Amino acid sequence: MGQHRQALDIYVFKMRNPGKAEDYCNQVQLAEISTATAPRQGQRSSATDLEDKTTSIYHTLLSLYLSPPPPHKPQWGPALSILAKHGARMPASSTLDLIPEVLPIKELESYFRGRIRSANTIVNESRLICSLRSSVAFAEEAKLRLGDGIPSGNGGRNRHVLITEDRVCGVCYKRFGGSAIKVLPK
Fold first, then answer.
1. Which pairs count as long-range contacts for 5-9, CB under 8 Å and 24+ apart, including other chains?
2. Tens digits of per-residue pLDDT, 26-83?
3. Which residues, including other chains, have CB under 8 Å from residue 65's CB and lie 6 or more apart?
4. What are the tens digits of pLDDT across the range 19-32?
């Protein structure tokens, strides 16, 4: 529909039901996630990707709580609740611009804790993926060097081939001589 601000305005100011407003935001967020295209293989969205996108539905709700239309007053409680629960989903720079200077930092502790946890999660996941890829690469290299599960262990690059004057190439049927040769895998 695209008229999320008007719907949130009804929930927040006319119905005075912050729970319904948050439920609406959750539904819109789930709908956006399900319709969004999945990132290509090897790419992962990070916290900075969230900042590049347009404002989220939670950002719109937060702006209604903190800077409401003229006849209404700011609602600190629901705003802090939204920051604590969904702060990591909102762009940090514009979210901090919405927060008034009179609000003590102590009240924003849960918001900052959520942002830090989100950033740490992304860093830890990328480290884990890097470690898994290096262990797979190590296993593949070991398979190449030591063999591919042959019981005698003489496979891969450590395979020994005995060259005599009587042996011929299996592809072109030329005799092996003093020239360099290449061993084909079995």
1. 5/60, 5/64, 8/57, 8/60, 8/61, 8/64, 9/64, 9/69
2. 999 999 888 875 555 555 555 444 444 567 899 999 999 999 998 899 999 999 999 9
3. 12, 74, 75, 76, 78, 79, 82
4. 999 999 999 999 98
| CA neighbor of 5 nearest in space, from 51, 68, 74 | 68
pTM: 0.63
Burial state string for 131-147 with b = 16 or more CB within 10 A and e = fewer than 16: eeeeeeeeeeeeeeebb
- Which residues are CB-neighbours of 9 under 8 A, at least 6 positions away? 64, 69
Judge contact between 62 and 87, C-beta under 8 A.
no
